[in-house]
Amino acid sequence: MELLISDTKVKYLVHHKQSEAFLSLSELLERELEERPEYREILKNTLKKFEDDHSWQTFNDMMICKAYDIRLSKIVVNNHLQRKPDLEKVNSILANFNDEMINPLQVHDVDGKFFTVWDGQHTALVLHLLAQLYNEDPIVPTIVQHFKDDDSFVLRPRHLIPQCAELDYKLDWDKVPIDKIKASMVPMSQDPVTSTIWSEWRKSNNFSKLSKVESKALIDNMKVFRLEPDKLRGYLRKVHSDIGQGLSARLIFYYLPAGFQLGFHKDVRTASANFILGENPAPLLFEDEEFPYTEFFFNGFDNKHNVVTTEDRFTFQVAFFNVYYESVYRAMERANLFKVKFSPEEIEDRDKWTQHIAQQ
């Protein structure tokens, strides 16, 4: 089997003033294969295995999701599987509404008449409010996933993932250059990343418990040091590799003096693995739960959280950006990084769920 590589230019763009900026998928693949020629054989072998492992004879034999226009009144939510909606998020989408930024709802065909939304329930609620405003039952764009009859796992809540999980991974703090890192730290008010987004971030997170004076004192006293992946060496590189699992992750170090609190807030990071120096650190607080761990992985992007320090807090963080929390969790679970172990059947259900909802 040969990889089908075409050198044909996208004909309908030939006369476009920016035609050189556009590549066909064949051109893009060929360009990458020229840089990584070993993947010609790797991809060829993977395609051969794919062909051997499946009975499909044509592309259309695959049950790939399809796009449909569906009446909004036909959209339902499986209350046993979906998280509780965040009305703050609904209000934020509505307040900053841009009709050009609304994505199709991702749904599953329940019975041919109704469709349950599994990705986009907040968007669906916003569209419902707008439909009420205009007194209409509009047709909305959806992506419909057709599950097979034997995929009963979609009805089981096994794929639901803890929002904070204790890690079964101990740092060797003797190998972490703590003194050198502390000497390189800067107040968050002087950190280019934090200082750029702090005002809007504080406003959007509704730091109701922190006054302007308190929040200024926080970013003047809390310190940060960031290490890009290409700067990592030795033990720090190993930790980044072990925890990062090849995903979009960076190392960030934080120092929070005793007596300060962050206030309940949400992160710009999609997921975080935190390692706290010391034996009995202040717990991570969710609005309805607390986690007294020294090593933990959590979803601070969707969950408001806080830390109230009673002593100085030094945090070694593997921070993930632009990758779903659920995707990172599953990768770390497969690497056996959590203290609570799930059964092979539960993990299999999650893997099936991932494949079907195509969130990667």
What do you see in this structure?
By secondary structure, this protein is of the alpha+beta class. The chain has three domains: 11-53, no CATH class; 66-146, Conserved hypothetical protein from pyrococcus furiosus pfu- 392566-001, ParB domain; 164-339, Jelly Rolls (Sandwich). The protein contains ten helices and 15 strands. The chain has helices at residues 25-35, 38-53, 87-95, 121-134, 178-184, 192-205, 212-221, 234-244, 325-334, 344-357; strands at 66-71, 75-76, 105-109, 115-119, 139-145, 164-166, 186-187, 223-227, 249-256, 271-276, 284-286, 290-291, 295-298, 305-306, 313-320. The strands form three sheets. Strands 6-13-10-15-9-8-7 form a seven-stranded antiparallel β-sheet. It has a five-stranded mixed β-sheet with strand order 1-5-3-4-2. β3 and β4 (115-119) form a beta hairpin. α3 crosses α4 (121-134) and α9 packs antiparallel against α10. It is globular and about 60 Å long.
Outline of the structure:
The protein contains 10 helices and 15 strands. The chain has 360 residues and is of the alpha+beta class. It folds into 3 domains: 11-53, no CATH class; 66-146, Conserved hypothetical protein from pyrococcus furiosus pfu- 392566-001, ParB domain (Alpha-Beta Complex), CATH 3.90.1530; 164-339, Jelly Rolls.
